[in-house]
UniProtKB/TrEMBL annotation:
The name this protein goes by in its record: Bifunctional glycosyltransferase family 2 protein/CDP-glycerol:glycerophosphate glycerophosphotransferase
Cell compartment(s), UniProt: Cell membrane
Positions of the Glycosyltransferase 2-like domain: 6-115
Gene3D superfamilies per UniProt: 3.40.50.11820, 3.40.50.12580, Spore Coat Polysaccharide Biosynthesis Protein SpsA, Chain A
Keyword Cell division: no
Membrane topology recorded in Swiss-Prot or TrEMBL: Peripheral membrane protein
Keywords, comma-separated and alphabetical: Cell membrane, Membrane, Teichoic acid biosynthesis, Transferase
Amino acid sequence: MSLLLSIVLPVHGVERYLPRCLDSILGETPAAETRFEVIAVDDLSPDGSGAILDAYAARDSRLRVTHLTENQGLGGARAAALPQVRGEYVWFVDSDDWLPERTVGVILDELAQERRREVPADVLLTDFTHVYPDGGSEPNPWRHVLVGSPLVEGCTLAEHPALFQTVMSVWNKVFRRAFLEGLEVAFGRGYYEDISVTYPALLAAERLRYLDRPCYFYRRGRDGAITATASPKHADVFAQYDAIFAFIDRCDRPDGPGRPVPESLRTLVFDRTVRQALNVYDTPGLVPVSRRKDYFHRVALHFERHRPANYRFPGGVRGVQYRLAARGARIAYAELRRTGRLPRELKRGARAVAPAVKKGVRSGARFTAYNAFRRLPLDEHLAVYAAYWHRGYACSPAAIYEKAKELAPQIRGVWVVENRRQADSMPPGVPYVIVNTPAYLKAMATAKYFVNNVNFPRTMAKRQGTVHVQTQHGTPLKAMGMDLQGRPEAAEGMDFDRLQEAIDRWDFLVSSNPHTSEHFARAFPGRYEMLDTGYPRNDRLANTTPEEVRAMRARFGLRPGTTAVLYAPTHRGGKGGYVPLLDVAELARRLGPRFTLLVRTHYFHTGGPGDLTAGEDAAEIVDVSAHPVVEDLYLAADALVTDYSSMMFDYAVLDRPIVVFAPDWEEYQRERGVYFDLFAEPPGAVTVDVAGLARALRAGDPEPEARERFRAKFCVWDDGGAAERVVRRVFPVGPAR
């Protein structure tokens, strides 16, 4: 059987990342799988990468290694590999990235199907995941442009031009080799080398196809990445633009490599290249100061050389910026971005775009303000708060904020939120800043105190004299942090070096109980002070009153005499979205009408659990996934059903029944790793099927002794005073009353 796929792997200075990349390609496919090959090019790597490649090649004949005697860069290394390629398709993978489990087999099966089609795909586009240095990850941000589009079945670029909104890199695209060779294009030299191939390929393809499966983990923001490196080589992008438009011009000739490119697509290409060029110019620290004038002049030359004949500038602030760039008006462009106002000589005729200019200033200012703000003195009376990746006012940071207002009123607190929608949901009177606005950048650059239940962005560097408080957001049942280093399935996407960098910024780590302190000290090794205080977010539960409970039940429409059960399963990292291991409708039918089921999916999941109707004689089912304050749900519920969520530790503060529903316990503890045996030390009854769960709930309070033991171990510090203990240790307050 002929080879289906050749994976080309350029390698230079990636010794610490290379084994993971190779293992994800070769180690995830059996040696008997010979439908693919890997061609690795050691681009005169200055570290041990070449030796690593040779060692792997000695063990696996599917890997062939070429050692270059001169450094060629990514483009040159790929070009050196192409004459050796034997597969029908070729995939260019970057050696500091890696592939999810079983990806190569999935791609091979897809290509085998394409081979049998009358018109096989010229380019197979894959979904991907961004991975950040602090271990966080983000799904493909352009997926909404692809899912449900004609690309799923296959189409041309003209039939779905929105594809130009997505990433133009080469690594998420698998090319039919004969098609690629027929284009007569080449990777460029220097930075942005791949766009001189991807643009022509997308423009010329008779059939593009999108595979809606994450097939690539792309590292963002690592040291040495061009998107985070100051260099005059950022001007290399203009040579790639010239190559792209030269290809478009060749397509217009009768003997060209493809069909003539419609003027509409030429305009889209031009607009996208201008936007990219200006983004590079606007991003602080990329184009060296000594080269900025020349770079901006190159943008103006790009307009002069390649602007389509009937090109119309876009509207609003972007259109004004483009006009200034086309004229080479660098000083006016800088003034517009700095102040939101045009210089006096340019104001005539600009009144129509003034509102858009003002609106766009917030976005533009973020590229220049942060470094300037960092030169200001620290504001000793400013504290920045955030929770759950800037989702809003919640968790222990909210409890600490409230107590700090009382005990340290001289400290001004401001919250970070992601967008306007989340800002609108903030409690009245709580100050906030929106991510990437000038106010946000100034607060992040000058605040003395930082309180978060996750990590702040690594790009916001810790200044000397600042105080960072990490509260975390749950007592750990599952393994955390550095304890995941031996569990590749659970640690998919984590960068442990970046995690350690984040830990090194912490001055205080809040712990909920002795169990947490023990395991956090190992999972998050650092020089911080462990605050053995209890979780501030649980103060509300410890201090609640019967009146507040009645108010919460009324808020959710719970009738007197109704038993409210909160069902809250945890997130399964390797399973994707909401995992309905429990048939909620069947449980509702077994419980009957005197019960109400409040169903809350994990905040990582988009949308709720779907159709939850169960019939007239069943319990009412209410989807409460969108309710922002989980403590409200705790107070309203008479019992909690969960699996491995840290919610069980919080809910136990209320001393109400908890039932564990864990049909996949063996799988979960094997893959994720756990700190104790939940079946041996449960917070209440343990069930593995819907019948047993229904029996436990109908029994009312089936395991009070188990809950008592659980509370004695995990709720010992939850006395309603945790927030005060944190505030008195961290902030300047008077003596305790």
